[in-house]
Amino acid sequence: MNWDKYFLVLAIIVSLKSVSLESEAIFVVDDNDHEDSGHADPNSNHKNGTRWAVLVAGSNYYDNYRHQADVCHAYQVLKKGGLKDENIIVFMYDDIAFNTYNPRPGVIINKPHGPNVYEGVPKDYTGNNVTAYNLYAVILGNRSALTGGSGKVVNSGPNDHIFIYYADHGGPGVLGMPASEDYVYAKDLVHVLKKKHEANAYQRMVIYIEACESGSIFDGLLPKNISIYATTASNGSESSYATYCPGDHDYGSPLDEYDTCLGDMYSVSWMEDCEKTNLRKETLGHQYEVVRRRTAHGNVQGTSHVMQYGNMHQRNDLLFSYMGSNPANDNFISISDNYVVHHDHDHDQSHFSSSVFSTALIRQRDGNILHFWHKFHKAPTSSPEKLEAKKQLDEEISRRSHIDYCIYKIGKLLFGSQENSSKVLNYVRPHGQPLVDDWDCFKIHVKTYEKHCGRLSIYGMKYTRAIANMCNSGVTTDQLVAASVPTCSIASIN
Ligand SMILES: *[C@@H]1O[C@H](CO)[C@@H](O)[C@H](O)[C@H]1NC(C)=O
Ligand SMILES: *[C@@H]1O[C@H](CO)[C@@H](O)[C@H](O)[C@H]1NC(C)=O
Ligand SMILES: *[C@@H]1O[C@H](CO)[C@@H](O)[C@H](O)[C@H]1NC(C)=O
Ligand SMILES: *[C@@H]1O[C@H](CO)[C@@H](O)[C@H](O)[C@H]1NC(C)=O
Ligand SMILES: *[C@@H]1O[C@H](CO)[C@@H](O)[C@H](O)[C@H]1NC(C)=O
Ligand SMILES: *[C@@H]1O[C@H](CO)[C@@H](O)[C@H](O)[C@H]1NC(C)=O
Q: Where is the Legumain prodomain domain (predicted)?
């Protein structure tokens, strides 16, 4: 085997690091915090109003186990919080629980030694019904626009609270969906939210998004005056991170058994926080801080910046208003931070504020490489499994070089030189500005590229910024076609 080719894999393995960090005491929830906002009183809020939730896992395949695990887990949190199944709408491809690679058929976990989160999850939109189009129809409560699925939609009224949670791969300006040709484009999603607001179909909404470059979904796009508060796992120009990954021996056997990451850093942070607190006492702003800290401190290099957008007054709202609260947590008050994952046995366990958080984190987009690598590594020499894993690894690596090559070459053709091209294509607009001015151009350019050069796929989504920058610098569709055709008809597509 030619080991040089696997530098990428090795770089990933090397980056798996464990860190210890002292947990910091986080501010105590100040009960006066929400009083002057006038709308966060838990009792007045919900005498007349329903809590709705839309949960979306945007991926499929076993190497993306974690996204569906996150979404199933979110369902359990909300269910325990008291939301009814009729008000929780789940999008998941549903190819994990009974996947042939799943060591525990019918079971999905979201952390090592964790409970089965698959139990009872409503299968509203599964398989080919998990599309951007259906997501918009569900949010808008427009049953006649649906194509497939259970028909459940957010049939909400002016007093209702809506929580939307999405987990998957993304790229600048886009979120992935497993079954449709189309991505969720930031501009389309925000347009749907504005329409929902115009329809007077909610009182307040909260959106949590885990994906690479997820800040770009709202940056410069989400208005502050439509009663929506959103947080994202990463800013507009960085990866988000998977966690509970194989190779993290601190957690022992379940991970060796799994060969795939079980969760995502931002996602498990908010959910594990919810599971340890009385949500009648915790504000959105407090949870943001807990999640931001845990996500940022995930490893030595620092991981992603958890961001917030929209109406900042909603930071004073109680989580209870959107997620309910598990009565079993009534006695928990969030006086200390919640990111204690497991205790270091070398430390004095009675000292509550001193604990160790230890994990292996990998970039979202490297999750599949890690999965193939582990399969390869574990399989007996010259077994069919080993050959299959090697083939998958090789294919992924050549798919990546194909995409790298295409973008590089197209850029050079468009901008004359490598230097000029990288200046334009890599440019990151300042925080607060949308990714692109002309979103129609962006969508057409993405489609044009994919038509001639193949799907961007998980890895290639990182290049949507380059494509957006082509629009921002005035590249026309004809010019893009002229550069793509010679480039991509030569480069072989794997
Ligand atoms: C609930 O709120 C709606 C809209 O404000 C109102 O029309 C309705 O009477 C309320 N119902 C109850 C039971 O308070
Ligand atoms: C619902 O969707 C259908 C089909 O796309 C559309 O014709 C109709 O106008 C939509 N209804 C509303 C209320 O937006
Ligand atoms: C999609 O929805 C339709 C209509 O509910 C259903 O018959 C079909 O089985 C669904 N497809 C998948 C793959 O779940
Ligand atoms: C929100 O603010 C923008 C910009 O100031 C304004 O154009 C828009 O009409 C406002 N929307 C609502 C719903 O108040
Ligand atoms: C976004 O993340 C990148 C990479 O981590 C960092 O260099 C940049 O400063 C961040 N920008 C903002 C606005 O947080
Ligand atoms: C690169 O950009 C500069 C400034 O826009 C331009 O003068 C130059 O001709 C470009 N180089 C090529 C090879 O097109």
A: 391-488
